[in-house]
Amino acid sequence: MDQINRACDFVIFGALGDLSRRKLITSIYHLERSGLLEDETKIIGIARRDETTASFIDKMKSSLKEFLKWDIDPEVWQRLAARITYVKINLDRPDEYYQLHDVLNLEERVTVNYFAVPPSTFGDICKGLSESRIINDDTRVVLEKPIGHDLASSIIINDAVAAVFAENQIYRIDHYLGKETVQNLLALRFANSIFTTNWDHNAIDHVQITVAEEVGIEGRWGYFDQSGQLRDMVQNHLLQILSFLAMEPPVKLDGDNIRNEKLKVLKALRPITIDNIDSKTVRGQYTSGFLKGGPVSGYNEEEGAQDESNTETFVALRVDIDNWRWADVPFYLRTAKRMPTKLSEVVIVFKQLPHNIFGKSNRKLSPNKLIIRLQPHEGVEIMMLNKIPGIDEGVKLQQTMLDLSFSEVFKVERIADAYERLLLEAMRGNQALFVSREEVEQAWKWIDSIQDAWAELNEPPKSYPAGTWGPVAAVTLLAKDGREWEE
Ligand code: BG6
After folding, report:
1. 480 C-alpha to center of ligand 1: Å?
2. Closest Cα to atom 2, ligand 1: which residue?
3. Which of 149, 210, 213 to mutate for ligand 1's pocket (most ligand atoms within 8 Å of CB)?
4. Beta bridge partner(s), residue 346
5. Which of 189, 252, 260 is nearest to 1 (CA)?
6. Does residue 144 line the site of ligand 1, with CB under 6 A?
7. What's this model's pTM, rounded to 2 decimal places?
8. CA–CA separation, 80 vs 32, rounded Å?
9. pLDDT number for residue 372
10. How many CB atoms lie within 10 A of CB 69?
11. Cα of 18 from ligand 1 centre, angstroms
């Protein structure tokens, strides 16, 4: 991927907010520590509160103390603090953006504006920046999710930003694209001939994508209840993983080529409508249960819950991709809150062999499986059959596992957080790790159809106790196709 390092003015809108405190400042600290920030790069925090640069820097240091999992290195912090400036701006007051002329340097540095604020304010910021003439053709904007809650609302947000910025200036975040293991999907698929030639309906029986979360709603009930797991996780993260797994090889590893290939996959997703909603989807919601030995509340008893809500916290889907490569190869997707453990993984289940010559001692040959552990314990496993050593019992086979753990093999000190990579790539101007407008809108179109069908069906979600793998119906979803979830 092209890497162009240029000094930049990194402007954070919503600099005192949760995302900025938890993720952005900690990521910038790690970039500083790794020597990845250009000498002249500046960090500009923007919020509406009365702060001075000194008091803002103090607040950022407290955030680091709270969220950095390491001790703060005083030298690194000193270098970082020297880059920081605070500017107070009310986002809906275009006249206040003029202050940025005193801190930004459009000639010598690229401005990267990070919108760590609700999407309803994106239009105001774009207007403020444009009216105060503090942008040029190099200026970039980084947009946090959610880009809308359906196709119509995402078009309004995208239009508001497009009124000021061209698509090649817009970087839409899906933080899963910054995860090391998600990026490694490209390497696995396109750098290894054993997978390039065995990656279609001839070799693969089906694919499972699981993104299980242990956490519940964590004080975000108000937001989450308007969204639900389908919009919060499937529309973005799971469809991005699916696109990486299913896409054709891009001509080059650049933004346009990768994004176009992903888009083709999204366009080939078979619509789920009222006609097939029952056989293709399972919606669930957690009730009270036990996790890690302690009791936890149900979704409707969570802090901030207002009434008996039918919002789903569990989704399982059978997804079909209508193209040549994936004919008759279902992709089963599953994601939920309050599962027994945090685990994201992909399982590629290969086809059964057409004939078994070991039938005497082994009536059934288990299929090969490629298991890609996205998080935690990042790594790759291959399940295969081997002969049990010995001379007395004929050929007895046993399923064995080749296990490649990234932390053991690569001996890296730590795996960078997704946000570190994304901030760096936005500074470098590499759009490959960001989502295009067409992708966002195509994904919403497909999700809207499911959401509409659920609304028409008007059935409550199936309940599952917190700390379990979801409603029984999710097991049935695969069982009726003669398959089962990999546990
Ligand atoms: C966010 C969702 O995008 O991803 C959250 O809004 C979810 O609800 C989170 O918990 C999961 O991210 P990760 O990196 O912890 O898997």
Report:
1. 30
2. 232
3. 213
4. 209, 372
5. 252
6. no
7. 0.95
8. 7
9. 96
10. 7
11. 14
* Residue reference for tokens 């540095």: 109
Residue 179 Cα: closest atom of ligand 1 = 14
% the chain with pLDDT above 90:
87
Residues marked active site are found at 237
In whole angstroms, give the CA distance from residue 47 to residue 82: 19
Cα 50 to averaged position of ligand 1 atoms, centre (Å): 31
> What's the pLDDT score for residue 1?
44
Choice from 174, 221, 232 to test ligand 1 binding pocket (greatest atom count within 8 A of CB) = 232
pLDDT interval class at 30 (50, 70, 90) = very high
Q: How confident is the model at residue 3 (pLDDT cuts 50, 70, 90)?
A: low
Q: How far is the CA of 119 from the centre of ligand 1 (A)?
A: 17
What are the pLDDT digits (tens) for 119-162?
Answer: 999 999 999 999 999 999 999 999 998 899 999 999 999 999 99
In this prediction, residues 205-214 reach a mean pLDDT of 98
Ligand 1 atom with the smallest distance to the CA of 224 is 8
pLDDT of residue 6: 87
Does 124 contact ligand 1 (Cβ within 6 A)? no
Ligand 1 touching residue 213 (CB < 6 A): yes
pLDDT(92) > 70? yes
Closest ligand 1 atom to 337 CA: 10
Whole-number Å distance, alpha carbon 234 to ligand 1 midpoint, is: 11
CA 175 to chain centre: 4
> What's the 215 CA to ligand 1 centre distance in angstroms?
9
**Quick one: average pLDDT of 256-260?**
96
- Structural domains of the chain, with CATH: 3-144 (3.40.50.720), 177-413+436-479 (3.30.360.10)
**Ligand 1 pocket: which of 174, 233, 313 to mutate (most atoms <8 Å of CB)?**
233
Q: Which amino acid is at 89?
A: I
Q: What is the mean pLDDT of residues 291-320?
A: 93
